[in-house]
Amino acid sequence: MILEELSQLKKFIRLFFIRPGIAVSKVLDIYSNKFKHKKLKDRYLTNSSFQQNPFKSGQKLYNLNLFPDLINNISEIEQNKKNDNFEKLVLNLINHNFNLLGSDWKNVNKIVKNKIKNLSNELEQNRIIDLIDKDYRQIDWQIDFKSGYRWDVSTFYKDIKFGTKAGADIKIPWELGRMQQIQLLIIYYELINKDGIDKSVISSELKNQILDFIASNAPGFGVQWASTMDVAIRAVNLVLASSFLKKANIEFDNDFESYLISSIYEHGKHIIDNLEWSAGMRGNHYLANITGIILIASHLPITQEINSWLEFGINELMNEILYQFNEDGSNFEASTNYHLFSAEMVFSSIFVLLNLPKEKLTALNCGVKTYYNYALKKNKVFNGLWLFDAENKINFKSRIIDRLKKIYEFSSAIINEEGVIPQIGDNDSGQLLIPNYDLTFESHKPFGANHLSQLDLMKKVLELIDKLRDNSDLLQFSVPKEFKDFGLYILEKENVRLYIKCGSIGQMGKGGHSHNDQLSFELFIGKENVIVDPGTYCYTSEPQLRNEYRSTKMHNTLWFEGLEQNEWWNESADDLFWLKKDKAKAKKIEFSENQFAGEHFGYRKPHKREFTILKSNDIGRETLAENIPIISDSQIAECIKVKGVDTCELNKTKNISFHLAPGVLIINETETSFIIGVNNKKIEIISSAGKFRKEKYFYSPEYGLRIEAEKLVLISSENRIEWQIEIKSE
User: Which residues have C-beta within 8 Å of that of residue 72, sequence separation ≥ 6?
Assistant: First the structure.
């Protein structure tokens, strides 16, 4: 008890390393939630937590289609289907073999029977189990099937602990519990031909998996109710399943349909009662809560309660678009992957709102002057960021539309033609929809197709909005190279692109999803990522590795042994999502088409870094330094050169890392240069200011997955270190 109170005191103290207003709000939230927790637990333990279906027979459900051009958007999956990959994937899912977050394929059938302390829940669970086909094997929804650790299904959801058992990762059961495999089963059902798996097998698996989850996870108990964000994502998949079953005219008995709709309603109630909102700061978790509420309320029958949820969801979505996305369109969490995850939730929600049926819109239009705010638990005046037009359709104010366009432009700037993005900040592989995702059959290019699908969804939403506006320039897009709010700068010549991080640590100074990557860069040549950010790999399961991957030395920048750009605590799982303060205070000095200069103050002396990118016509016969050979006339016409200069007067040995992507071949090496090969390009990394050392490291392209690769470390005692990268066609 004393240790727990001491831990709470430490958390209280560190709150004041971020903005004081945020700190006070968080303290109030902690103590308010503690009181609510006790009351809620007593209620859950004494009564059945299953909700009865609140809707009358015959009340209409409203189908949602979040895949606007499903068949046209799945060329990659179609290709996999032709070579049997997709069918093998679906067979794996039917047999309950899952490959999630680097787990490799594991069978997740249940061995231990659930034991629920609440007798009322047990009776209801047995009724649901009786509806499942007798030859169906139930899934173990509580297990981390990478480590084998299982959470207790009878534990009240607010008492679930994680980060306390070495190697156990709560994200594994959460990922499984999102039930995104439902989307893949639906896609396969729609594409199925006479040679494929029988359609009745797919529809039965959909029914059985849904009933299995409902029966095995009594509301409010076990790991699957501990994260409201994951509850919301699961709700989205249940809504998609319900819509699909209706649209495809697949008929099940009334009991199944009643339990499915009751469960969707239960998910909505749980989200409303457990919103991840804070007056001080909230992020992608709260955005997921709002997305879940909007989709649930858009699908369920019209009632006063459901209408109130929808009004609340729309108003909060408008607020969060402006709160969580910077004016340059980037996300405030300072992570490219979290940007796309959050953007996907925003645009999916808006796509649904723009396609609401007339009855929903009419009901909604009756009560938009004031609405009940479930986060603040009080009535609020309608915020005015959206309205109804003359045709009773939802229209958005220009501030919202402008921000949506900026989000699209930032997304376009970071996604290449293969769908690959630079990894800046954390990457937990989070996604809402997976219409283009084949569960890591090509793990070296994770989520590439899905990123392109996300971008396509954003464009479709902007096109829908544009149709509602007169004389609009909404579809006239630009792709900026400078994003001051995020701290991202892009230098580009021909097919060579450099992404440079210099700026905010995100989350208003908390830095929870930021890394020590100031002045780090990634190098793309054409479609290939050549010099990469090593990624994230894990969160609470292995704290030491979590901190290693966010450390300065794991980025392509200048580092010193024993020093970090920004520091963190090492006392609890929460510390893995904090930086003590933004000590580095990185800032841009200069940015133009060919040059970037920036500095940070994370060490005892400032670190300044300059980049220059020159194409063949600009290079001439200049040299980097006396000992670097002059480029010959024959090389000039085929060469692009990236020049780097690192300056720091700290009297310690200096290291500069260059993390090579897996598959990049080292052709030749000396103490002052390395020649590497990528496709038909020969790339030489050169410096006369120190010596290169080759090392192994593990590249993490997605959460939970590591691939061995090589990195170069330039070691120097100089205060000014010049280096260059020459890219030549072979």
Answer: none
Q: CA-to-CA distance for 7 and 30, rounded, in angstroms? A: 13
3-state secondary structure of 330: coil
| Cβ 498 vs Cβ 523: under 8 Å | yes
CA distance 582 to 334: 13
Instruction: Give the DSSP letter string of 184-210.
Output: HHHHHHHH--TTSS-HHHHHHHHHHHH
Q: How many alpha carbons lie under 13 Å from residue 476 in its C-beta half-sphere?
A: 3
List, for residues 575-623, the tens digit of each pLDDT value.
Answer: 999 999 999 999 999 999 999 999 999 999 999 999 999 987 665 444 4
Distance CA 233, CA 238 (A): 9
Radius of gyration of the chain (CA): 27
**What is the distance of C-alpha 305 from the center of its chain?**
31
**Which class for 337: exposed (0-12), middle (13-18), buried (19 or more C-beta within 10 A)?**
buried
Token pair of 328 as six digits = 């340059």
Helix axes 181-191, 75-82, angle to 10 degrees: 70
The residue ranking higher by pLDDT, 588 or 193, is 588
For residues 452 and 435, what is the distance between their CA atoms, to the nearest angstrom?
11
The rounded distance, in Å, linking the Cα atoms of 521 and 280 is 32
Q: Which of 527, 557, 561, 556 is nearest to 660 (CA)?
A: 556
Q: Residue 644: beta bridge partners?
A: 611, 723
3-state secondary structure 608-673: EEEEEEECHHHHCCCCCCCCCCCCCHHHHCCEEEEEEEEECCCCCCEEEEEEECCCCEEEEECCCE
Could you tell me if 11 and 574 are in contact, meaning their C-beta atoms sit under 8 angstroms apart? yes
Query: For the segment 131-176, what is each residue's pLDDT rounded down to a tens digit?
Result: 999 999 999 999 999 999 999 999 999 999 998 899 999 999 999 9
The contacts of residue 78 (CB under 8 Å, 6+ apart) are: 86, 191
| Lowest-confidence segment of 158-172, 358-372, 395-409 by average pLDDT | 358-372
What is the C-alpha to C-alpha distance for residues 700 and 682, in angstroms, rounded to an integer? 25
Q: DSSP class of residue 150?
A: B
Residue 167: how many CB atoms within 10 A of its CB?
Answer: 12
Q: Where are the alpha helices (DSSP H) in 274-325?
A: 284-299, 304-324
